[in-house]
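Students often ask what a 'structure token' actually looks like in practice. Rather than answer in the abstract, let us consider Aromatic-ring hydroxylase, a protein of 402 residues. Its sequence is given first.
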Amino acid sequence: MTRPHVLVAGAGIAGPSLAWWLSRRGWRVTLVERAHALRTGGQAVDFRGPVHRAVLERMGLWEAIHERRTRLGTQACVDATGRTLAEVPALMMSGDVELQRGDLCQLLFERTREQVEYRFGDSPTSLHETPDGVEVGFEQHAPQRFDLVVGADGLRSNVRSRVFGGDDSHLRHHGFRVVGCTLPNVLGLRRQGVIYSEPGRGVCVTSARAEDEARALFVFTGAPLGPRERSPDVAREAVSTAFAGAGWRTARLVETLHGAEDLYFDTISSVRLPRYSHGRVVLLGDAAWGGTLGGQGTPMAMVGAYVLAGELLASPEAHAQAFARYESRLRPYATKCQEGASHVGGFFAPRTRAGLFLRNHIYRLLTTKPLERVFEKMVTHAATGFELPEYAEAFTPQSDNR
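Now compare that with the structural description of the same chain:
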């Protein structure tokens, strides 16, 4: 059998993870990324429980991730005077191990760059399925035929919109907007985090790596974003407007935002799809089941890549059956993990004073000694609710086919 040739759109986490598994078995993988270089920004990402750990160990990444791990401790919910109202333990925000998303992107790129063809600064413009493949048009490269196409290009997937229809019908907005970025550590934090909230708006600031650097997350109520509203300038203006008159040290953080170079601006939304595949095209990661925050997007992307690769390698000439098994296994797990995205906005920015009081009261209770175990189960139950399939034979490397 000739080596299957797969086009993967998206060089974030899901795409390179899938490429790693497939290329080890001799499959040809072309990975196309709209950005002109590897995107190494983003918030910290965490892994928790035996399912996540098993996938990382099978990829040989567990030790490498620990070498790059952040060591963020508790995060304090404070009032306008800086007084601690409740504390959120590291288990909830950082899991068993946490690292910067950019560090993980770099790790995956380094481990696939020799076997995988990366095309940066390009994106599919058309996908036309034929009896024996998919003819793909590109912005920069000449059209090319592939055996399969995988859309691993994020919450606002280009592949999904071209094959399954526009985003509006597939993205469920949860009523909040979010801006994330790197800022100078003006609060002087050391491996800790602070959350300040008022009704409908909240900011979380953490410092877990360089002492002069912090990550900030501004969360506030708002309508869905229009197609031209996601620019850095619009993000800065949106935060300035939303946090005008806010207490604590918010004004200083908003002022510092104007020098940030890695702004991320989006709504808190989640993807709802009736199916993950159509013909020879399949979706993976955030493109299939994503949530902007709180949906365990990174570990789910890597678990999903493991399962999709396992099913394809088990029956390479029967992609339809492989896609069906992949979705049957993953959908219940992904849907459960995805639920976090519908609640995360209300955690950082409760809509009412009563909701803010209730949040602080609940977390004070949950972090007391008698309820420690209950709290631990609450924050890990979705991540651990999956039985990882065994694909030992399918994943045996075939270096002679490279």
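One point worth highlighting: The mean pLDDT is 88. Ask yourself how you might have guessed this from the sequence alone, and why that guess would often be unreliable.
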